[in-house]
Structures are given as C-alpha cells and as structure tokens.
Design a protein that fits this description.
The termini are far apart. The protein has 1 helix and 12 strands. It is globular, with a radius of gyration of 19 Å. With 152 residues, the chain is mainly β.
Length: 152
C-alpha cells in the first residue's frame, strides 16, 4: 500500500506550479519544483548555496520520511547539488519545504520559477534504541576510512 503524502500550498505560493510527480513508472524519486512567484529566478554563483522555496508543506505519515535528493542531470551538466544530501523531512514537520542548493560548477546557474530542482523519495523509518554497553569484536575492529584495502 502506498503511503499518502498530503500536500498544502505555502502562503504566497504559485499554485500553478506542478506538485511533486514521478517522471516515469519506475522512478523512485518524484521531481519537485522551485516556486519563486516574486523573484521569477535566482542566480546561484559558483560555490554559493541558497535555500530555494518549493511553495509546499507536507503531512508525512508516521513511520515514514521524505528524503530530498539532487537531480543527476543538474549535477552532471551544471555541478548543482544539495548541501545536505539527502535532506530529511520528518513526519512531524509541517513547515515550508525548501531545498538547499549549492553550485559546484564554474559559472553562475539560474534557478527559474517552476524548474525541477530536486527529487523526493518517500522512505520507511526504523527507530532504534540506544544503550551504553561493551561492543563485540569484529575482524575489522576499529579500522576506518580505507582500512579494508583495495580489491584486486
């Protein structure tokens, strides 16, 4: 059964901008658009980051989250990514949804009103319990970054 994500428009949002939508039948992520009715566009210079409004608020069912992820085409063609990829929207958050974009490219990038800027993935959440205890030994132990070596 698909979880139902209820959507509400934020104050001042352009309601003609498409709601999140899956581009293909097999897509895991639904495209989400910039909603910039006042500015119409935002320039994102190289190495800069900005919070981009989507004009949306969401009600996510308990036991789920929405992950905001970069769009691969923007990343490859322009170096546009998310600072906090993936961003998480918790089920108890009801505020405006924004996307924190960063420009890793060499040129200014223009974000336009209605542009598909990210994708959202609905995912189940498992809550853990935490306890102070003695840890079991493993073959890897405390070996960190690069400690497992290179495969041949």
């Amino acid at each position: 059964m698909k979880p139902l994500i209820k959507i509400a428009w934020d104050v001042g949002a352009d309601r003609t901008i498409p709601l999140p939508a899956y581009a293909t039948e097999g897509a895991a992520g639904a495209d989400i658009c910039a909603n910039l009715p006042e500015q119409k566009s935002i320039i994102l210079p190289p190495r800069a980051r900005k919070l981009i409004a989507t004009g949306l608020r969401m009600e996510i069912p308990s036991g789920f989250e929405v992950q905001i992820r970069p769009r691969s085409g923007l990343a490859l063609k322009h170096g546009i990514a998310l600072v906090n990829a993936p961003g998480t929207i918790d089920s108890d958050y009801r505020g405006p949804v924004g996307v924190i974009l960063i420009n890793h490219g060499q040129e200014d990038f223009t974000i336009t009103h209605g542009m598909r800027i990210a994708q959202m993935v609905v995912a189940p959440v498992t809550m853990a319990s935490f306890a102070v205890d003695v840890l079991d030994d493993t073959a890897r132990g405390a070996g960190g970054f690069g400690s497992t070596g290179l495969s041949s």
